[in-house]
Fold this sequence. Notes:
The chain is of the alpha/beta class. The chain has 16 helices and 13 strands.
Amino acid sequence: MSGAATPLKVGLSTTTIEPALTGGRFDGIGVFTRALLDHLPGAGVDVVPLSFAPPGGTQKLSAGRALPLSFPVATLGDMLLPSGAYLDVSRALPAGANGGKTRLDLFHSTDYRIVRMDCPVVATLHDALPISHPQWCNPKWRRLKNWLQIRAARKAQHVIASSHYSVRELVEFFGVDERKISVLYHGVRAEWFDAPAPAARDATLAQHGLQAGYYLFVGTLQPRKNLERLLDAYLSLPPVLRAARQLVIVGAPGWRSAELVQRLKAARERGENVIWLDRMTDDEQLRHLYAGAGAFMFPSLHEGFGLPLLEAFASGVPVACAHATSLPEVAQGAALEFDPLSVGDIAAAMTTLARDDGARARLIAAGRVRALELTWDQAARRTVDVYRQVLAA
């Protein structure tokens, strides 16, 4: 229905995928933003990518046009100016056919960078982690950042959450009105369902010293990802199993990861079958790494959604994940769940995925079905439905 209606002109926040700010590395929010940028046009939207300028000016922008003000300046204006003031987004847009202003129907913020604008604002808020679990976040400027995020969350005309678990957090910790929240699951790209060419996959594995069949984790190294316990569980496995299956950690170092990095390096120096790949920005090579895995392990203590689960499901890899926060909701029984606080439970899941062929086959089949239910095309169509509901209100 939405595809047959008049196309909407929607500004999409692309700040999270600006190379000048990310170094080319996308986190989950960046993957989400890129997916919307690619798939919203197919759902009947004229997408206008817009970014808050990074330090040093607009010449560094490449993902989107520069918004009229930087985020700090726009936020300051929100705080000091009367409630009727707003950011005139039209200044960032090319002139219309008759030289007049071009207007957006709506602006979609893909993270907490939300300010009042000259059009309705929809915001996707992924979690309330800095407030719900401050011990897992960088303490620098924490109080100020939390205060700003709470204020920002309440400015949006409508909020999109990526899971029902996230709704509970947004209501409790951000004070968002539950009546203006919609739950829209993320998706997975179509290419994840296609097995890579064996020669290309094997070349990638050889490049990184990998042997097919390893345990794989993908994500930033940070406390909530619970990688210390995953490493402990792996090291507790029988030597014959560790010799047969490597533990492969793919992810850049994040806040408070120095001790974990040292442990990973020390394990490698002792001859343990542990591989850490900290620079993986090539999407095709990442698909090769999933395709070469024997099992995907996701022990995270907190996720607003957990995109790597879908990538593993679509890749035909059996998955074990933490029974925590949004992960059971996303997996819907397609993953072997474990207690993330128990090293023994994690190790038992690793053993099952290595030795129980029947369980592996069931999980692979269930994962593929679950991934097919959650594609970015579907997510884009449902997002457009939310846009139209907001505009019709």
